[in-house]
Structures are given as C-alpha cells and as structure tokens.
C-alpha cells in the first residue's frame, strides 16, 4: 500500500529551509468584509506541518478554524481579504496562478470539509464522484478512473462494489469514508480535515479516526485536523494548537497540551472534557463561563481576559504574543515563561 | 461530587414494562423492531442516561415514554398510573413530563422571541397564573439572568449555549416532574456543554427534577447521571449505577464503547460494520455477530458460545441493580 516517494522539485525547495517543510503558514490573516463591519477571523497565525505529521487545531465555535482551513486552498468567499504566506512545498498558495492552484487543490492538498458528507451529489453514483477528480486532474481514461475509484473505496474500508451506490443508500459514516476516498483521489501530500467526525457517534468516529491515522502513516501524508473536540485531537495528533479569537494561543506536543495546558484557555478547554473514572469530574461537569468574543468587537489586551480566571490588571491593556513555554511548547499568556510584571499579583 | 445518589424510591416515577415498538416494513419488507422488549424505571429525582450507537432505538424508546408513539406491546406507567393515550390524558401527561430537544434540530422558531418561545407551553396548557412571572422564573432557572434582558431577543441573537438554555426554560416553565432530553448537548462546544450539564444537575438538586438523558456520549453519563442503561439493537444490555457500569463494564458491547473513547488507556475494540439493522435482529444474543468475546474464543473457553448463537439472554428488569444481558458475563 505504501507509495513510492514522489519526485518533485518543490520538495527540495522546502527541504532546503529545513524540516518540516510540507506546509508552512506565516502570519496568516483573514478579514471578512471591510470598514466598520470588518470581521478579522484569523489574526496572524504561524503553523507548520511536515510529511507524516498530524497537527490538530482546537477551539470554540467561531474562533476561526474553518476560515483557516479554507484559506489554505484559497476557497474563501470573495469578501475575504488574506495576507501572509501559505507555503505548500515551498510554493506560496496566496500568489499562485489560478491554473497552478487548481492542480495543487487535489494533488498538493485536499480538504475533507465540515459536514461534507451531506455535500455529495445525490443523483450521481459515488464511484463516479470519486473518479471525477482523477479524470479531471490526471486526464485518466474512464476505465482507469473506475479502477482508481474501486481502489480508493477499498482503501477506506468499503467494498469496491459500493461504487454503484447513491449517497442516500449509505450511512453517515460510509458517506464520510467516501469523502475521504475523494480527498485521497489524486495522492495529495497534505489532507485538511475540518471536523471529520463531529456528527458521528462514538463507534463510527473511532472507525474514521483509525482510518485517517492508517492512511497518514502508510502514505506519509501531512494531516491538519480541526475539531472542537480536544480529546479526539489529543488522541489522534502529534501536535496540538489551541485557537482563540483568530490566533493560536497555545501549541505543543498533543498529549502535553491536553494533560497540562500552559494557557488558561487551553486549561479550561481541556478541563471541560470528562475523564470517565476520574472522581474529580464525577457529577461535576465543567464549562467555561462567558461567551466567546465577537470577532467584530474584540476585547482589548489579551482577548481572553474577560473570561480568564487568573487575569491580571495588565491583561486588559497588553496583547500577549506566543512565547516559549517549555521544550517544543509555546503559549500566549503573560503568566507563561516570564516573571509576572512588577506591581501585579503573582499566581 | 457535591451530591450523593438519591435512593431510588420503592415506586418509580416513570416505568416501562416489556415495551416494544415495531415499525411496519414498507412494501413487504420485514418490520423494524426499534424497541424490542425494554423494562426501565426512573425514580423521583433520579437522572438516568440512556446510551448506545446511532439507530439502536434510544429516541424511539424516549418517544414511547413520552406517549408520542404508542407501544406495540407492553406499557408505560407514570406515578403509578398506566399512561392513557386519549388526547386529554396525553395533554395532561405532557405537562408533567417534558421533552427537551437540541436547538439545532429546529426546536426554536426563528421568528419567535425568547419570551414567546418560553410562554408557548403556558398558552397551550392555559396557564392560570401570571404568565410574565412564570416566564421570568423559568429563564432565570435556566441561567438566563436577568430574564427581562432576554425577553425580546430572537434565537439568532443568542449563542448556541444560550439557545439551549431557552429550550430548557421552555420545558421548565410548566414545572414538570420529569424531563426527557435527547442529545441535549451533542452539537455544543465542550466549554458550553459543561455549563448546560451543570444546569441539568442543579435542577435535579434544587427542584428534585427527574431526567432521562439520551446520548451516545458516555462522558455525559459520567458527568451527571446516577444510573446508566446501555441499549443495543432495541434492548437494554447492561444497566446499573454509573460508577459500576462505566468503571467495571461487564457486557462486551459496553466494554467496546468505553474502549474507543480517546481517554480509555486500553486497546480500542473498534466494532466494524454499520450499526445493526432492527429489521434483521440476529437469533441468539443480538450482539453475537459483532461480539469480540465470542470472536476471540473467550466465550467458547467459558463454554457459552453455543448459547451465544442460539439463546437470547433474558430481558433485564428496570430497577436500580447492576445487571447484564450476556451469557459470558453471567457465567462466572
Ligand atoms: N462569509 C463570512 N462573512 C462574514 N463573517 C464570517 C464569514 N464566515 C465566517 N465568518 C465569521 O468568522 C469567524 C470564524 O468563523 P469560522 O467558520 O472559521 O469558525 P469555526 O471555528 O470554524 O466555527 P465552527 O466550529 O462553528 O465551525 C466567525 O465569527 C464567523 O461568524
Ligand atoms: N418512523 C419510523 N419508521 C420506520 N423505522 C423507524 C422509524 N423511526 C425509527 N425507525 C428505525 O428504528 C431504529 C431506531 O431509531 P431511533 O430510535 O431513532 O434510533 P437512535 O435515536 O438511537 O438514533 C432505526 O433503525 C430507525 O431507522
Ligand atoms: S494574558 Fe492574562 S488574561 Fe490572557 S490568558 Fe494570560 S492571565 Fe489570562
Ligand atoms: S452473550 Fe455471548 S455473544 Fe452475546 S455479548 Fe455475551 S459473550 Fe458476546
Ligand atoms: Mg467550522
Ligand atoms: Mg436519536
């Protein structure tokens, strides 16, 4: 099942700058609309994913996760303005010509969208829908397209004979497998999965997550997985980034972030997941009081300060950049790394 | 940790006995036995979680308990009285037992204000008292304070968590004795989810409200329920106090469900295949085709494999004791 490594000039270009090099996002900003009604949905994000690496992005509804995912392939509506760099194998997606971008959308990186299993075309057989990108982007013959669709179906654990089925004949979990098969159709180097299991129940979710893990390992694909379920991400991914109000506020090895977050928001998010068997969460559901910030009217200073249980006076005034928080970890909080400023109450 | 399990009273508030709900198959197809013999009790002030895979019959069972679907067999008893299915009896019943749906499933009308959404139940039941006071009281109980601030708002002006609170307020306004909540937090963020679950728990502690919470989320059961009933293909296959069932599961299906949780620390038993089909319930133990204990030969070593394939384990009683419907688990 393992593919031969792909010969590609751009891989070297990325490699030359050092690992990881498959996807590098630098100071990405996305604003919907303009003027007084502008909504800054992503506000300066830096991230990197290497081949075979799995990066999870967690955060509340509305924090900008899907916007970030869509920006990676320039799939945002025309009202969105972007800046920064999105380097895919060293090539900037934001400055790519249209034709090149179309090729990259399937072979370079592909997306499994949030709720995508509802977006299959109801009147076409799923085999034809899976073969479509192969026919378009690989200029394959119809027979080769069918063969590829059959191969992809088996890769995602569906019998090749299901190629003749229509979407309504499949369960939600099966449809999500079809979406993954489609995303794999042109051997992408990177897969972006936006909430791939959110609407599915636990057993189907486990099946899909194991499938994604296996494919990533076998094919050395990079994975960017987005979810509001921190527990799922911690279990599936190598690294975890926590997003709040359009920024990454914490990043580090997945387990470490989940078990002992440095940022107070990361801690609150993690504490909201019950640990079955842990007496501390028995009959003690924990949430995070307060509403997520309105991106059109962000709080001053640290955007988390109105909800932060350990905020200091300075938090209302000073925005906090990401700073080192232990080996391979960073967090954007005044309490992390540096001494608490003079005149402030220590923790 | 702030409360203890209230002792289940001698007479349960709501009780299902030998309940079956069968949907006729279309065009000669086999009928679907969505609920296939269930006994389940809910005591006063008790929170019971009904868990299981999608399609296992949870919602159908909940609807039957609410009188929304007549049982094909068996009966529902509320406060010692068998449930009547006449229009008047059902109307009276639905004042005492309220259904809470998840808001994204469209339970709030986008053109109704919060006030109207909450007052609707009072109007249906021709509430004799002060409507405004009752609405305000329900909203504050649901954690929307001060309530007047929310009266004139429309659903789109509220966050997901606030909308779910409005739905809960709408159920509370008639001062029910029991609520049935179907996936009350499934589409909410973890941070909001915790707040809503804390609300359900405090309603029990302050008002003595009973609840049946339908979910596929075992963590939710750990967070708020006293008792859990695990459903598989129309039957309860394991039931008991949350601490026992979730930390020492006996049924192979419960074990599998717990093993695939991100937090489980053990080797995940990922059951393959799709959720099973209630129009084709297997002979013997209904779980046997997917059972990891049977497949691994463990059931054979215990000498029960033959019964797994031919004998259906008995229906569990509805009460509070830990019980399991599995030949292998009960063989020891
Ligand atoms: N087309 C648009 N026009 C204006 N604002 C938008 C648009 N799309 C998204 N937004 C806003 O951008 C912010 C981020 O949205 P995004 O969809 O990325 O969030 P998310 O983290 O994916 O949330 P969810 O988990 O609910 O999908 C939100 O405040 C949202 O309302
Ligand atoms: N009105 C109906 N007609 C036929 N089959 C139904 C009907 N409602 C539910 N079912 C079937 O009964 C089974 C249980 O459904 P349901 O109770 O909704 O499951 P859950 O809530 O656990 O997801 C499913 O197989 C479903 O397809
Ligand atoms: S910077 Fe201040 S408000 Fe922000 S997370 Fe840290 S302590 Fe809380
Ligand atoms: S009775 Fe047999 S087949 Fe059924 S769950 Fe128990 S061991 Fe498995
Ligand atoms: Mg999203
Ligand atoms: Mg249901």
Outline of this structure?
The complex is a heterodimer of chains A (347) and B (332). By secondary structure, chain A is α/β, with parallel strands linked by helices.
Question: Can you walk through the features of this model?
Answer:
The complex is a heterodimer of chains A (347) and B (332). Helix content of chain A is 31%, strand content 20%. Chain A is an alpha/beta fold and 347 residues long. Chain A has a domain at 119-185. Chain A has an 8-stranded mixed beta sheet with strand order 6-7-8-3-9-10-12-11, with helices on both faces. In chain A, strands 2-1-4-5 form a 4-stranded antiparallel beta sheet. The longest helix of chain A has 18 residues, at 202-219. The N and C termini of chain A lie far apart (53 Å). In chain A, 48% of the residues are buried. Chain B is of the alpha/beta class and 332 residues long. Chain B has 13 helices and 11 strands. In chain B, a hairpin with a 2-residue loop joins strand 4 (73-78) and strand 5 (81-82). In chain B, helix 3 (114-124) runs parallel beside helix 6 (160-172) and helix 6 (160-172) packs parallel to helix 7 (190-207). Chain B is globular. At the A-B interface, helix 6, helix 7 and helix 8 of A face helix 6, helix 7, helix 8, helix 9 and helix 10 of B. Adenosine-5'-diphosphate binds next to strand 2 and helix 1 of chain B.
């Amino acid at each position: 099942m393992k593919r031969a490594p792909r010969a590609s000039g751009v891989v070297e270009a990325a490699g030359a700058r050092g690992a990881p090099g498959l996807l590098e996002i630098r100071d990405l900003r996305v604003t919907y609309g303009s003027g007084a009604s502008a909504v800054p949905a992503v506000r300066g994000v830096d991230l990197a994913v290497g081949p075979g690496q799995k990066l999870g992005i967690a955060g509340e509804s509305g924090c900008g996760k899907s916007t970030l995912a869509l920006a990676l392939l320039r799939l945002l509506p025309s009202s969105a303005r972007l800046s920064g760099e999105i380097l895919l194998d060293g090539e900037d997606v934001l400055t790519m010509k249209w034709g090149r971008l179309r090729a990259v959308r399937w072979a370079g990186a592909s997306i499994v969208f949030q709720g995508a299993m509802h977006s299959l075309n109801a009147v076409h057989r799923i085999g034809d829908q899976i073969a479509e990108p192969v026919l378009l982007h690989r200029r394959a013959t119809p027979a080769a397209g069918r063969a590829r669709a059959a191969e992809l179906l088996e890769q995602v654990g569906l019998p090749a004979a299901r190629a003749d089925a229509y979407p309504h004949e499949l369960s939600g979990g099966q449809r999500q497998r079809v979406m993954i098969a489609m995303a794999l159709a042109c051997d992408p180097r990177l897969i972006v999965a936006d909430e791939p299991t959110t609407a599915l129940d636990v057993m189907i979710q486990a099946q899909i997550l194991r499938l994604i893990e296996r494919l990533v390992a076998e094919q050395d694909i990079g994975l960017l997985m987005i979810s509001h379920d921190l527990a799922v991400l911690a279990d599936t991914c190598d690294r975890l980034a926590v997003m709040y109000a359009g920024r990454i506020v914490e990043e580090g090895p997945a387990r470490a972030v989940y078990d002992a977050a440095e940022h107070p928001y990361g801690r609150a998010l993690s504490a909201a997941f019950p640990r079955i068997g842990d007496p501390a969460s028995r009959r003690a559901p924990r949430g995070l009081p307060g509403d997520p910030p309105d991106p059109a009217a962000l709080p001053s200073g640290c955007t988390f300060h109105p909800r932060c249980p350990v905020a200091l006076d300075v938090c209302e005034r000073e925005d906090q950049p990401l700073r080192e928080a232990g080996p391979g970890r960073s967090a954007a909080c005044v309490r992390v790394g540096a001494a608490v400023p003079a005149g402030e109450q220590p923790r | 940790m702030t409360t203890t399990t209230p002792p289940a009273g001698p007479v349960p508030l709501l009780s299902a006995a030998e309940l079956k709900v069968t949907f006729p198959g279309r065009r000669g197809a086999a009928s679907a036995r969505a609920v296939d013999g269930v006994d389940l009790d809910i005591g006063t002030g008790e929170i019971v979680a009904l868990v299981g895979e999608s399609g296992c019959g949870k919602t159908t069972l909940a609807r039957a308990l609410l009188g929304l679907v007549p049982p094909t067999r068996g009966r529902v008893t509320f406060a010692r009285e068998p449930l009547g299915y006449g229009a008047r009896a059902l109307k009276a019943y639905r004042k005492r037992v309220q259904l809470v749906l998840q808001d994204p499933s469209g339970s709030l009308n986008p053109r109704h204000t919060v006030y109207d959404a909450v007052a609707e139940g009072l109007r249906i039941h021709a509430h004799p008292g002060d409507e405004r006071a009752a609405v305000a009281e329900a909203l504050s109980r649901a954690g929307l304070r001060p309530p007047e601030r929310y009266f004139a708002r429309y659903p789109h002006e509220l966050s997901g968590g606030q909308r779910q609170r409005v739905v809960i307020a709408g159920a509370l306004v008639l001062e029910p004795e029991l609520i049935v909540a179907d996936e009350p937090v499934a589409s909410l963020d973890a941070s909001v989810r915790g707040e809503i679950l804390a609300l359900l728990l405090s309603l029990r502690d302050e008002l003595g409200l009973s609840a049946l919470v339908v979910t596929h989320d075992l963590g939710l059961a750990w967070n708020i329920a006293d008792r859990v009933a695990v459903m598989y293909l129309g039957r309860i296959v394991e039931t008991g106090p949350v601490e026992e069932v979730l930390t020492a599961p006996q049924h192979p299906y419960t074990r599998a469900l717990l093993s695939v949780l991100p937090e489980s620390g053990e080797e995940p038993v990922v059951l393959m295949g799709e959720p099973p089909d209630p129009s084709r319930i297997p002979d013997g133990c209904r779980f046997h085709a997917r059972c990891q204990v049977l497949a691994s030969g463990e059931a054979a070593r215990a000498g029960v494999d033959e019964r797994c394939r031919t004998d259906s384990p008995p229906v569990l009683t509805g009460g509070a004791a830990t019980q399991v419907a599995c030949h292998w688990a009960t063989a020891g």
